[in-house]
Amino acid sequence: MPSVPAPSGSPSPHTWWRGAAIYQLYVRSFADGDGDGIGDLAGVRAHLPYLATLGIDAIWFNPWYPSPMADAGYDISDYRSIDPVFGTLADADALIAEAHAHQIKIIIDVVPNHSSDRHPWFVAALAAGPGSAERSRFWFRPGRGVSGELPPNNWQSIFGGSAWTRVTEPDGSQGEWYLHLFAPEQPDFNWGSADVRRDFEDVLRFWFSRGVDGIRIDSAALLCKDAALPDVSGSEVPGPAHPFMDRDDVHEIYQSWRAIADEYSAGDHGDRMLIGEVWLPDASRLARYVGPGELHTVFNFPYLNCPWDAQSLRQVIDSTLTLADAPATWVLSNHDVDRVVSRYGRSDTAFDLDRRPYFHGFAVDLALGTRRARAAALLTMALPGAVYIYQGEELGLGEVQDIPDELRQDPIWARTHGADPGRDGSRVPLPWSGTEPPFGFSPAGAKSEPWLPQPKEWRDLTVAAESANPDSVLRLYRAALRIRRSEPAFDETPLTWQPTADGVLAFDRHGAAGTTVRCVANLSPVPVPLPPDAAVLLASGPVYGGVLPPDTSVWLRVG
Ligand code: GLC
Fold first, then answer.
1. pLDDT tens across 69-80, in order?
2. Residue 375 dihedral angles phi and psi, to the nearest 5°
3. What number is the average pLDDT over the span 35-48?
4. Per-residue model confidence as pLDDT tens digits over 538-549
5. Which residues are CB-neighbours of 140 under 8 A, at least 6 positions away?
6. Residues designated catalytic
7. Which atom of ligand 1 is nearest to the CA of 71?
8. Is the separation of the CB atoms in 114 and 186 below 8 Å?
């Protein structure tokens, strides 16, 4: 393929992810092209111009593969195709080509920790019985107790309940158990199996050769388990930080994946990127995943979880920037967490996946949350590194906390018997236009309603309404992304902290041409003076009289 020069201000194709703005696209909820109430690839293709105008460099697609959808596509039955509800492989090929024509890269989700229980390998494992080669690709074990009636160990599923399910053997007897760190429909692969390793390498090649530019690795730190599968103590849930999971073998896997990515990076098309989903709390443990010849980068969840507090944010930013080998990533929200507008509108603004019910207990001040989320957007987009924007964040959508119980789809809701509301509230279909549901999400005359109900208040937050409103969150995101892309001070330059009052964050980015942009974020309860000689490039809220109001950020041209 001939080399296409990058448009001025865009990152070089060979390091494109280092400072990219990456839009996380949750296909089910982005845009419905065929009227079945579920988003699809036709819907995405129709809205590529929207994404190009927004000013993003890449799209990360949540899983689009054939799936029984027990966990919204994170239970995959075929890693080399597209679920019919989303379209066809030909649609994906066309989408990749069209996105590239808009200078937009494509990242796809690969889920290596587990498959679907309908994956042909798992179906074959059930049929083949105990001790078979087919079962060795998963974690089958006999139960404990007199007749094997107790699970092999005490591990709990991350989604609630036991991490083990007992199977009925081909002869009809109650038999072995299999491990699933998530839902029972998501059996964990045994990464000690050479078949598993080979097959995923082939999956990577399959998608890289179709033009995909990057892979987001789901649950990247969970793959390798201590094969003795020992009990954990007390109510611990074995997760990425647990010694039974935090093991060296996973790094060999990612080194081989990196070699494949490098092999496909050699052409003119640009480098292929690997990003891991690693929920680890501190930078030193994250650093192991981005060591030499491993993943290019990892998601920055400490930043996402951080409360709206200057000192805590400064700490997370500093420790993120110590990951010297990997460009930083900045994430305010994704499909697994409460939307940022709601988080920042509560009296406790931190977040923690394991304590979602606690956070849902707080009242949400949407106006306050929106003001802070706007300020956070400018702070985030001024930091050196890549920024991830979860669809709907650019519209300022809040978490939908009042979805009727009978419509909830997230397995977390059922597996915790309603104790944890789950993640549906951040996955509600986007509002595009019009004054009532489906707000242009589905075409006129659609035969089905959106798969989750949209709040009627979203009439003011549609893409059409916000495009027409100069004060909207969408207009702020567009402006910020435009400046971030064109301003030399935001090219791979480090940040330099500036002295400030308590509760305020201020740092400079110095461009090669001698231009400096300063970002000031006021997280304190009082207005703070701005430097007298500075010109405002962009502000997250009204700025008058040379002072920056509380919960407001500004980008200034200084020097
Ligand atoms: C990751 C995904 C989440 C999914 C889980 C199991 O955390 O982001 O949505 O449910 O893995 O695949």
1. 999 999 999 999
2. -65, -40
3. 98
4. 999 999 999 999
5. 125, 130, 167, 176, 177, 178
6. 218, 263
7. 10
8. yes
